[in-house]
Amino acid sequence: MSEHKTGKILIVDDNxxxxxxxxxxxxxxxxxxxxxxxxDLLPILTHNESYDVIMLxxxxxxxxxxGQEGFYWLDRILELDPSAVVVLITAYGxxxxxxxxxxxxxxxxxxxxxxxxxxxxxxNSALQLRKKKMEVDLLRDQKQTLQQDMDxxxxxxxxxxxxxxxxxxxxxxxxVTDANVLILGENGTGKELIARAIHRNxxxxxxxxxxxxxxxxxxxxxxxxxFGHKKGSFTDAKDDRAGRFEQAHKGxxxxxxxxxxxxxxxxxxxxxxxxxxxxxxxxxxxVDVNIxxxxxxxxxxxxxxxxxxxxxxxxxxxxxxxxxLPPLRExxxxxPLLADHFIAFYSKKYNKDIRKASEPLIKRMxxxxxxxxIRELQHSVERAVIMSNHNVLQPEDLFLQKMSQxxxxxxxVSLEHLNIEDVERILIRKALQKHNGxxxxxxxxxxxxRSSLYRRLEKYGL
Length: 462
What we know:
By secondary structure, the chain is α/β, with parallel strands linked by helices. About 45% of the residues lie in helices and about 15% in strands.
């Protein structure tokens, strides 16, 4: 007998003597053996614990011969957990009922009184089946994630500038390790593309790359989304579901917008990263996870630590290596390459015969500040391809007359010609300049909380 016992068994039968004898024998072979005489408690028991095998009597005191109670509770168990493994307990004369129950979802049956060795063999087989079912469920979730990854439009990073060559060198060095990586950069600079490139060049490249936008997850759904949940653990939990940590097992977990995470949730994330374990919402048993972590943010995360907006210990955990992505205005020589790439893509998508951007357009694009970076360039080219009647894009196709207002002139423009967002952007920039980038002081000047100011900084790409 192995010294390391595994497996959680639940036995439900109205015969207390049978339960005591079974528990005494089975505790020598399995990690946990629970017993219960009242089947009405099954929903509570299965909600509070994830059992590997449930042994269920076919007949209880309410109905001693037809097996209808057994069928009812079999259906309820499988409704609560479709992956449940149920072994029926039945008398010799009820074998036909047991065979019928197997057709309706039971795994196997044992006859009472049973032989201990036969019972043990049946439960060990059932335990292996449960393990396979759980693996299939996890593979299903990972396959869905991998399919979403395959559907991603732009996998390749485009750039030949010196700034991007330094980024490529860092990717090459860090990818082959399992070091945690923090990618810093403004909105639209391609942080997720860098994360995917690290994954594709790592030893985990054949496993899942699982991305999570932490900025879009509400506090109430954080644990469910990242750690998973059991069916019925909350109102919308209609099925057991693996969280993003489990889906990324043996692969890469990408936590985007990590700077947006509130402090209470930072503590929960740190605990999961330190322990390399997660516990699904509604479950009591932790699950080991083996992931490579890549995080990203456009926030001034080091300043946030100084101002107590981000945990220092979490920052140490996630930034073994930091990659700073340059904004598009600092890699102007890459603009022609990016323009050609997006023109080719959207010309094919919209069935247009547009071959390139004209030289005057490239010059004007190179002078533009691009506050939205590559994402703004991409969307601008898409609109131009849709609207243009030329084979070569011209400056007027990209609406650069409006876009190319020098950024420095923005603050001197009369307020009566601006909308509320323009005014807010100018005021925020002035407050930051006045206080030398000190977030807390700028927020106080503007009458905002630090978190509100951070959200506006993200919104306006400041």
